[in-house]
Records
---
Amino acid sequence: MLIRVMLAAAVSLAVASAPAPIEGRWDLIVDTPEGPRPSWFEVRHSGFSTLVGQFVGIVGSARPVARVQWENGSFRFSIPPQWEREAKDWTVEGRLNGETLAGTMTRPDGGTMRFTGKRAPTLRRAAAPVWGAPVKLLNTDLTGWRAIQGENQWRVTNGVLQNMKGGGNLVTERTFTDFKLHAEVRFPKAGNSGVYLRGRYEVQVEDSPGPEPAVDGLAAVYGFITPNQFVNRGPDTWHSYDVTLVGRTVTVVVDGKTVISLQEIPGPTGGALDSNEGAPGPIMLQGDHGPVEYRNIVITPAK
């Protein structure tokens, strides 16, 4: 009798703990009035049967999802507002069809947007990269770059790339897969910018107040990975960034200090260019928040 009870309990536990088909990471495309925009969410198990996760909207940082409702191929979850001014929750609901999703997002202002999604790639590499030759991305002008998503406020003066005021973001014409990136950046008091790796993953550039590192502060992978120490030496000072990206694995060194070491980036951050994570992408410099300066931008791509 005892053996039967134990077997029944083991079977019950196995059934309760079996992954739901919705579990995993999902790259989304959202239909907005301004055109398609990227989004992302992740679903994972918590305990016997509860599904939890995190969500990244078109803008903002990753938001925790306390519960994902899942039944008969349909899912639904709600999250409180973040940068939205309305008090109501975001609601996301849809259906899983094989390895694709389709559904609707309802914003706090009551507006709705359709979305589709597919499973995010793991981006695990079978071998370590072999690095090619370094390439200077910044010369005497904006050759090799273009401004997007706003008016161009960028110019190059004496080898320094300057964003004069809030305007468009700046992206490279060339795209990259795995790479090592060096850049030096200077921001004013309360300045805010960011370097988007493949145009999808923002490494934060900001005059963070400190004294502790933050998931949305200087050198963080915005909303996802907190640096292991506070490294802001203050505004109007040149900071050096050395970032290595291989698949999803990132290492960030600021002013010679390794603040993120071989950490996995779960998915695109808010403000990403797209959610096609398996494709090469450009380097994007955020310019919509205000003045910032960059110099000595050099990339070493994998062969």
---
Amino acid sequence: MNKILYKEQLSETVYLMRIEAPLIAQERLPGQFIILQVYADYGERIPLTIADADPDEGSVTIVFQVVGKTTQLLCMLNVGQSVEALVGPLGAPTHIENFGSVVCVGGGIGIAPLHPIAKALKAAGNHVTTIVGARSKELLIMEKQMAACSDELIICTDDGSYGRKELVTQPLEEVCKRETPPDLAVCIGPPVMMKFCCATTKPYAVPTVVSLNAIMIDGTGMCGGCRVTVGGETKFVCVDGPEFDGHKVDFENLINRLSAYKEQEANHICNLDALR
């Protein structure tokens, strides 16, 4: 049992929770994730990136978007209630060092997993330029947290309600065109966004890391559900990733696999009132 210590609704469908998990909080590193199951005896297991951790409190922070049955059940839990099964930290952590200048790009819910990475890169002495994007101002999350770990913060919205009315690839290209281009780019968001971010950085030879969100079941490399193609080779997101060289990722393969169960997922969207 992992008790919920704090809950906040960040936007219409996005929630932040701090969950009691002292051992995970002590061991986790930027880029790693947990797998949780709302009810231990039944239901699916879903991977969520650790957006932050507090070893003193013994908690990990997760940020999730309500998109299906499990996230609907999760958002219905309140402070004092518990998530019955939670394991981690899983996955290979982000490689952190002083690269020099780094540009971090987050789109939508991808801003949450980007936060601990940008924070660690800043602490390692890098000059961090952060670009975050959302469909509108109301859907933008974690602005203050990203500003706190960035030397420069650029905000984009699709509808122009806040920041620049542009896709994140526009300021990313501007940063790559600077007299001194970044030494590294880290891009996390929807697969299509990451795909075009990689297409933007490639002509400027900026090494680009992406964090993939493939379908995952066990999180230990046994089921093969999260397989992706990277550099022509099969990799497993749960143990080989979740981070990979974005210029080598077969994004079309990833996008096709993510949509494989779209019909089944749509059929299992729950009526919240019926679940209460």
---
Amino acid sequence: MHCGDLCTRLDETLDTAAYADLDASANGLQVGPETQPVDHVTFAVDAAVETIDRAAEHGADLLVTHHGISWGGIDRVTGSQYRRVAALIENDIALYACHLPLDGHQNLGNAAGVADVLDLGNRSPFGQVGGEYIGQRGEASEPYTIDGLRDRLASELDTGGREIQVLDFGPSPIRDVAIVTGSGTDWLDEAVENGVDALVTGEGKQKVYHKAREAGIHVVLAGHYATETFGVRNLEGVVSEWGVETSYVDHPTGL
């Protein structure tokens, strides 16, 4: 399969066009010729020299990541940008990235993966960005305590040895859970307005402590990387079904 054809299929699967005016990431093919044949695709969360080198070890023709290297355009190819672009070109690897569309896809996305871990039902989109969504909300099949919720995530997420942080300010038991992976505490107000018991995200900000405490809601900070492995892993399964050889590079940051 040619690189352009495969990337078009990914764009269509993830509906990247719907997020074109909403996402700082240049979603889609970021580096490489569309005519390049692709026999092997490697998947990773981050496009970094380490993941590019490991993709090369797998014999990859294309690296698919959640975090790419182009955020609002590339003005200069220097420093880390140069090192990453050079690693891609030297290893003859193209790069495809998908950010917000992969967060919010209601079946394949990162939030959907966390919801699967928590066995949430009655799901609906959550976390509005413009007219689209980047998260998911659902009801626990069996109510959680805050310790039980943290333990469930800790047992399933690749936190790189990092302890999951909890702002324990909400009700018990926990039934209604909202999820925005990565850096999702900006959607705390939406969670409060919707009467959610807990917001699960990756990393927090100082102001969230007081806002959560005053609103009476739990906030679970399970790690940016740890909450965003699901989308690329699910995409790997999709591309494998298209008859292309695939591999996955795990490189947890502990953040």
---
Amino acid sequence: MHKKAFLPPLEKLIEELLPRINHWATKYAYLGQPVLSKEDLVSAGILGLIEAYHRYDPSKKVAFRTYAEYRIKGAILDEIRKIDIVPRSIRDKISELEDKIKDLYLRLGRLPTEEEIIETLGISTEDYHRLLENIKGISFIDISSLKQKIPELEEEDIFQYIGTTSDKDDPYEKVLLKELTEKLEEALELLTEKERLVLALYYYEDLNMKEIAKVLGYTEGRISQIHQQALLKLRTYFKIEEEKPKNSGKRR
């Protein structure tokens, strides 16, 4: 039987999944601004759904909606990755921030607080918050290189694997994800309670910045800053771990 026999008409699927597409477009819109609008991301999501419709293979025993949602979210995030949102000057600032956090971590034996980072940078709180707003396109790992090893993986999928057993068939992918999630679990324990809460609401509860701000009683901008600071700390921790000799064992 032709695979299309398993599916409703494409137009009906678009109508059914449009609320989900709008949800993800809203959630990730802040990453693409000012270059991409929410409408641009909705268009990318619809194209992802169309691609899913034509590529879907019912013999894989995966529900179409599950497969389609995966492709939709991936299409939206790929659209954002196509543009270079962060200019070179900001990338230099990111590197400087990571170096400062690394120095503080090695000196303090823990990830630093916001106040300690600001003091080390020698800038005002306002300037630091502005800098965090400017680096909103960063991720906590180099997701592009990781996707070469696990093509279908997205950053927030890694959070979903914490505390679970990977269902990947490829033994190499299972090991890679196990190592990655173990490091992520360790790093999350070093964040502040507020940072962990923002990440949990964003990645686990699938809330956008505006919704998180409403839950926690902060402005949307402040939630974005906390989110970026948490990712920055995770990036630094991962880099420190990568620089350790392979036989050095885990930090106690």
